[in-house]
Design brief:
Blueprint: H1 3-11, H2 17-22, E1 28-35, H3 52-55, E2 57-62, E3 70-80, H4 82-88, H5 96-103, E4 116-118, E5 123-130, E6 142-145, E7 148-149, E8 168-169, E9 182-186, E10 190-192, H6 199-203, H7 206-217, E11 229-232, H8 238-249, E12 253-258, H9 261-270, E13 274-277, E14 286-288, E15 291-292, H10 294-308, E16 313-318, H11 325-331, E17 332-340, H12 353-357, E18 362-365, H13 371-382, E19 390-395, H14 399-407, E20 414-418, H15 431-441
The protein binds ligand A1D88 and NADPH dihydro-nicotinamide-adenine-dinucleotide phosphate (NDP).
Keywords: NADP
Domain Enoyl reductase (ER): 51-417
Protein name: Crotonyl-CoA carboxylase/reductase
């Protein structure tokens, strides 16, 4: 039995759930990995010069044992997230530390502590097997998976599953991720695949869409409301392309920051009107490595006032971190919110706290999304209210190049990866609905 037989079953319209359940599973499959004995390979290099093409490998790996509450999924397509870039450059930490720590928690979790890490935190595919205790899903179901892995044995996470003390991001802090032909997930990560999308389109939004939903829309994040001025950094990037859609769909006013005329045009085509090209306008928030320039914060704030008719920002959608955080706090209005989920340019932030406390602003930390938020975010994709922002699709072999593009910020929106899917465009079940949204679905393609 090989993965080819699985693909044949997926591509045959006659295949039933019983056929999938009867398919013998292969002993091994192909997966994108980093290797534990290579974690020092980039020692001494600057972040920019660490090259994912050197650290990401395409390996044949053994199929992991299936445990209670889990599912093995045949992965048709996945996507590149920035967390895979972090794993591939071993920053800010090697992810093998996460696997070791997980492995120490219980007998079954030991499976994750291996000398290789199969990465990837998105997938669209077909359920192959479910473990004991799984009733909601069966072999043959077409699914996407969100990346929240929790144990739920502590009451801390019972209101908001992100607060579980054993909260992990699948394919980053656990093994057996989605950049592979087969993945192992907890069955509670599974959600229905949106019928009007191809495999690679369905695999693109998951992680970033759910994160943007919690960070911007959910009451656990900024709780955005109609009319809010929302400053969105990287508005045509992974997170930002969904934040921009949420702002527009929710009646808010996105102020989109981008770094090229092409990216500005993408935001305009999504429906945004207030756009700042940070490159063209030459903001330099730091005079040198240690010193910020408040005059530049003010110049940025003036530009925002020009675009809003004199108003300041209700919500900043933050993720660049060190480079922008001082400016983000400054331009927020009295009582406004800065919500942050990352620090791409550096995690030791500096801002002038007088502008925070005197103007009663709040900083909210946000990370991925709880089970319910991930489900609600996927529902919006399935209903055609929010659309994938897939620009380019790579083969599994070329994942290193795909991650390199994201690391160097030469991509747009999201970058997809075909795993078992032999070509793009497969897996669409609802052609009528797709036709209604075709322009929006293709907005980011091949630009
Ligand atoms: C969905 C996608 C998301 C993304 O893309 S996010 C971006 C990518 N992700 C990242 O860059 C994050 C990577 N993660 C990290 O950098 C680290 O993950 C953290 C810095 C978040 C945490 O580091 P750690 O070393 O794991 O954490 P500690 O909690 O400091 O644990 C070390 C020891 O310190 C103890 N400790 C924790 N809090 C306290 C306290 N308040 N007082 C005293 N001790 C404390 C712990 O218990 C433990 O101890 P013991 O080593 O003995 O187990
Ligand atoms: N905590 C969580 O749950 C999550 C965290 N993340 C983290 O968020 C970050 C962004 O992820 P994602 O959106 O997918 O990545 P992308 O690279 O797709 O998009 C980020 C965009 O931010 C802008 N940007 C990058 N650096 C700077 C800078 N120094 N100053 C201003 N703008 C900058 C760029 O846009 P432009 O050049 O056009 O301005 C870039 O396109 C990563 O660090 C990632 O790990 C992501 C998802 C979930």
């Amino acid at each position: 039995m090989t993965v080819k037989d699985i693909l044949d079953a997926i591509q045959s319209p006659e295949s039933t759930s019983a056929d999938f359940a009867a398919l013998p599973l292969p002993e091994s499959y192909r997966a994108i990995t980093v290797h534990k004995d290579e974690t020092e390979m980039f020692a001494g290099l600057s972040t920019r010069d660490k090259d994912p093409r050197k650290s990401l490998h395409l390996d044949e790996v053994p199929l992991p044992e299936l445990g209670p509450g889990e599912a093995l999924v045949a992965v048709m397509a996945s996507s590149v997230n920035y967390n895979s870039v972090w794993t591939s450059i071993f920053e800010p930490l090697s992810t093998f530390g996460f696997l070791e720590r997980y492995g120490r928690t219980n007998e079954l979790a030991k499976r994750h502590d291996l000398p290789y890490h199969i990465i990837g935190s998105d997938l669209a595919g077909v359920v192959l097997r479910t473990g004991p205790g799984v009733n909601a899903w069966k072999p043959g179901d077409e699914v996407v998976a969100h990346c929240l892995s929790v144990e739920l044995e502590s009451s801390d996470g019972h209101n908001d599953t992100m607060l579980d003390p054993e909260q992990r991001i699948w394919g980053f802090e656990t093994n057996f991720g989605g950049l592979a032909e087969i993945a192992l997930v907890k069955s509670n990560q599974l959600m229905p695949k949106p019928d009007h999308l191809s495999w690679e389109e369905a695999a693109a939004p998951g992680l970033v869409n759910s994160t943007a939903y919690r960070q911007l829309v959910s009451r656990n994040g900024a709780g955005m409301k109609q009319g809010d001025n929302v400053l969105i950094w990287g508005a045509s990037g992974g997170l930002g392309s969904y934040a921009t859609q949420f702002a527009l769909a929710g009646g808010a006013n996105p102020i989109c920051v981008v770094s090229s005329p092409q990216k500005a045009e993408i935001c305009r085509s999504m429906g945004a009107e207030a756009i700042i090209d940070r490159n063209a306008e030459g903001y330099k928030f730091w005079k040198d490595e240690q010193t910020q320039d408040p005059k530049e914060w003010k110049r940025f704030g003036k530009r925002i006032r020009e675009l809003t008719g004199g108003e300041d920002i209700d919500i900043v959608f933050e993720h660049p971190g060190r480079e922008t955080f001082g400016a983000s706090v400054y331009v927020t209005r009295k009582g406004g919110t800065i919500t942050t989920c990352a620090s791409t340019s550096g995690y030791m932030h500096e801002y002038d706290n007088r502008y925070l406390w005197m103007s009663l602003k709040r900083i909210i930390g946000s990370h991925f999304a709880n089970y319910r938020e991930a489900w609600e975010a996927n529902r919006l994709i399935a209903k055609g209210k929010i659309h994938p922002t897939l620009s380019k699709v790579y083969s599994l072999e070329d994942t290193g190049q795909a991650a390199h593009d994201v690391h160097r910020n030469v991509h747009q929106g999201k970058v997809g990866v075909l795993c078992l899917a032999p070509e793009e465009g497969l897996g669409v079940r609802d052609h009528e609905m797709r036709a209604k949204h075709l322009d929006a679905i293709n907005r980011f393609r091949n630009i």
